[in-house]
Amino acid sequence: MEKVTAYKAFNGRLFESEEKCLAYEKKYSQYPKIKEKVVQAKPYLTDKCVFVESPITKHITETWETPSAQKKVDYYYIVCNKYKFMSNSPFMEQNLMSGCLFSNPKHSNYWGNMGRHFAEIIIRGEELTDEVVNREVELVNNAQHISTFGKNAAGIYVTDFVVEVIEKDKSWRFENIRWREGAIAPYIFTIEKL
Q1: The whole model's pTM is what?
Q2: Which helix (H) or strand (E) holds 91?
């Protein structure tokens, strides 16, 4: 039998030399690594044909838990420095970042544009409350039923937009429950007052 000396790192891993143990601990002490980036939305065109800087920013957070871990990417949108929009849907990126704000009021209340619709309400200066949010969801559901824009190829309406109050007058979750599964990804997003 031979007696050995080992060096134990913070997580229990053993090393034969103090140098290797210290190098390992130094490397892992840098984690989790977090990289943040802010992207400004494209300017939008007003009804007076003037481009205005958008009050919307996209915040991208990249996180590595360990050196060998896969990068985790989270993102959210801030509107007027007052509201945080979160969604994994490409609808939200298109609605908020492309400069299409106020561009087509006719389709602003189409369920696939609801992120944009709520951003426009906020930019106009209206505060979101449970009452305002429920009113707008009811309007979009009714608007779909009186237009052909909400019909699928079979002529069936595809809107059943719902809102769930997460925290009274502060946080809401939105979803078109008819699109929970199928070929098209669901459009689910949350809005939270900061």
Answers
A1: 0.77
A2: helix 90-97
